[in-house]
Amino acid sequence: MTEEIIIAGFGGQGVLSMGKILAYSGAMQDKEVSWLPSYGPEMRGGTSNVTVIISDERISSPRINQFDTAIILNQQSLDKFEKTVKPGGLLVYDPNGITEPPTRKDINIYSIAATEEAAKIGNTKLFNMIVLGGFLKIKPIVNSEFIQKGLEKSLPPRHHNLIPANLEAIETGKKILNPINVL
Question: What is the DSSP secondary structure assignment for residue 62, as one 8-state letter?
């Protein structure tokens, strides 16, 4: 099993954190992992993306041009990365701020209203964990126990009190996923 993922959005949406948690979780599950971040110089508010590869086998290169999965959090990223999803692959997106939804018919497309749900919960910082939960419902590439370990590794110890809320947000994401085009 090898899963090649691009997560893309604006800086400040938790794009890099989501990728890091996935990578740590995969590593803790004895998978081979790669985490390759990319972001504009403006950081918060600028474009941000991360490539994550989780595999049972050695990873030859962290640089790839086509992905099994794209997790998209803004229109600019959708415009750039929709075409990079392999036929039969997966695209998950938050419809908030998306003016032109994905149009491909040869991939699986799901929307997840994570921005709206995070606002309902009253904690917008859980946005990325809601999205992560939706992705993991479709592709459970790491076990939930390792997600908790990935959170413990990613978050500084002073923030470990937030882990239960993050795990709850992941479960919420699994519940609110909306299929748009499923092959």
Answer: S
Top CATH class, 2-181: alpha beta
Edge-to-edge, what's the strand order for the sheet holding 108-112? 32-39, 47-55, 2-10, 67-72, 85-93, 108-112, 177-181
> Which are the contacts of 158, defined by CB distance < 8 A and separation ≥ 6?
none
Band of residue 45 on the pLDDT scale cut at 50, 70, 90: low
Q: How far apart are CA 106 and CA 93, in angstroms?
A: 16
Is residue 36 very low, low, confident or very high in pLDDT (cuts 50, 70, 90)?
very high
CA distance 89 to 107: 5
What letter represents residue 150's amino acid?
G
Strand partners of residue 35: 52
Residue-range domain boundaries for the chain: 2-181
Q: Residue 34: how many CA atoms within 13 Å on its side-chain side?
A: 18
List phi, psi (to 5°) of 161: -65, -15
Q: Supply the pTM of this predicted model.
A: 0.93
Please identify which residue in the block is written with the tokens 């081979």.
Answer: 32
Rounded CA separation 147/151 (Å): 6
What span, in angstroms and rounded, lies between the C-alpha atoms of 176 and 171? 9
